[in-house]
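user: Here is a favour to ask of a fellow structure person. I have my own habits and do not want them to colour yours. Could you put it straight underneath, so I can go through it closely?

assistant:
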Amino acid sequence: MIRAYKFLMRPTVGQQQALAEMLRDHCSLYNGALQERRDAWRHVSKTSITYGMQSAQLKEIRAFDPERQGRWSFSSQQTTLRRLDKAFAAFFRRVKSAETPGYPRFRGVNWFDTVDFPKDGDGCRWDSTPHGPVTRVRFQGVGHVKVHRHRPVVGKVKTVSVKREGKRWYVILTAEQTQPEPLPKTGSAVGIDLGIANFLADSGGAFVPNPRHARAAAAKLEAAQQALARFPRVRRDKRTANHRRAVQHVADLHRKVRRQRLDHAHKTALGLVREHDFIAHEDLKIRNMVKAPGPKPDPDRPGSFLPNGVAAKAGLNKSINDAGWGVFLTILTSKAESAGREVIAVDPRNTSRTCPECGHVAAENRTTQEKFHCASCGHTAHADTVGAINVLRAGLVRRDANPA
């Protein structure tokens, strides 16, 4: 199995400048390759440029511009060209499937934040010698950079990536590992119901509160964005130091919220994996859930529209995104695979409207957001707990119907 590790780097001032130049030059290579593809299609009888054709030009490009392109790893530049090729492949796939295509765009220097090295030892070298929490990684054109290794790297390192997040630099490793030993069996199975009022309710009646990290930081973020909005719109190279600090402050607040959300998801998923052998959850289509409602034309007044609840839906969408269900489910699945646990997604329809006692299904069973009262047998419980119980039952049925 392949596992990723992300470590904070501690480069010197000179190394930070070299890393920034590496990102800038790879961004220039990406944009130049994109421009070549656009020009070939528009002006040379719709000629398609492939990755192989552009990769064959790298030697000439490096020889022509040794100061900017010749100093960096050849394989990392090939990976940058592959990234562009994947973007075009995804574009043509969406065109064929009648989706919104999204033609590949040029990247700004601040938007191009990652350089990938496809093999450890080819333009980069990870120091695997265990000598405390500080180790080093070497990059061609940069040198040996200190890395805060907060946990050991298990397995053979396959790829290395450099990523910039604000003022911080990270190294991301992928390592090939043998399948880890599964956790001891607990004999427990659980169903979970994700929500807004509570982040999670399980079939045993327990609840995990929703931390609402974005809402807690909303006041600070609003003030920071208002301060940023006071600066006039000018070209990037004309911006003042105060403007750059305001941009950085907004980015830091967003980064803190994202890291808080990740920390909560990791801890919640780890608790579930340690306590239960089998976990069932709803197969939520989150992208569809956060779509804005479409306009409703007024049939009596052409050119006018009826109220469609877009303001209320916007608040709900913000709460769903703040909860981070998709991130949590991805982390839960990954941790369960490493621990030898089983995770199954089930159809979420009517899970909170079905009575777990008599099986009666009706919208009237859920009288309020929290209260469930069966109109047939009178059973009462918390609506989220009822949903989790029904999710667990559906998951067990699906597992028994498809034995491993």
